[in-house]
Amino acid sequence: MIYSNKDFGTALKEIIDEKKIKLRSLANKTNLNYSYFSKLKKRGSYPPISTIKLISRGLGIPPEYFMEYRIYKIQKILDKNPYIIDKTFNYAKDLINKEKLKVAERKKSFTEK
Description:
By secondary structure, the chain is mainly alpha-helical. The chain has helices at residues 8-19, 23-30, 34-43, 49-59, 67-80, 83-97. The radius of gyration is 19 Å and the shape is elongated.
């Protein structure tokens, strides 16, 4: 499964459309209010992680599908292991220095035409 890099509401709408799931059916599977899903899809609000897990189970997908869940997991890992940040940064820097990794750069600034 490909994970979404879109905000929660957009990702939710896309997966519901893709799976052809009715909001009332999802509401029944999750014991969440039908109108709650409409709000999530339209307003761009973000549910708590426990609700993302519940919705994911109702959709039959891993919670990692949603970008917010992946960010949450990364934050938890980094909070417990702050040394990983430096190791990751140094690893990327070494790859760039060894020319095994290219970093894209714009030739013109965004304000130039």
